[in-house]
Amino acid sequence: MAKKQYAVIGLGRFGTSIARRLYEAGQEVLGIDLNEERVEDAEKYITHGIIADSTEEKALNSVGISNFDCVIVAIGDDIQASILTAMLLKNLGVKKVIAKAISKRHGQVLEAIGTNWIIYPERDMGERVANQLLSPNMLNY
Ligand code: ATP
């Protein structure tokens, strides 16, 4: 697989696990978080880390965000920051924006601004577990 450039915004458990898996698969991963400690904790799992507020266009431009193949917005609780970030990314021309939604409404707004893939972590994981339980080799559970 050719090397791609990913940026993960928000280095909580969700963002860090995406960053880590991509990094371990040999991809370029930039991690961005407001919180210095979060960036430091994720350092082993990312190619570069920066402390920045993703709702500031200047900060996104300074890392050349529009050159990234895919940007993941892994901010949940601060819905406003999540939406603003996704909107800026689309306005700056990022082709593939993925964002986590914590509610249906949050997801609807993300969809309206052109987010390419919206993830509902609990719902999606619940479906995945059920599908695994229904798969033929798991029916003994
Ligand atoms: P998780 O559920 O993935 O463990 P969490 O519970 O820490 O995450 P979230 O609100 O989803 O909480 O935040 C994820 C990360 O996003 C946090 O580390 C937070 O500092 C970061 N974050 C929030 N707002 C911004 C922002 N504007 N710019 C950059 N990072 C942000």
From TrEMBL:
Span of domain RCK N-terminal: 3-120
Listed GO MF terms: monoatomic cation transmembrane transporter activity
Any Gene Ontology biological process: potassium ion transport
Full protein name: TrkA family potassium uptake protein
Span of the entire protein shown here: 1 to 141 of 218
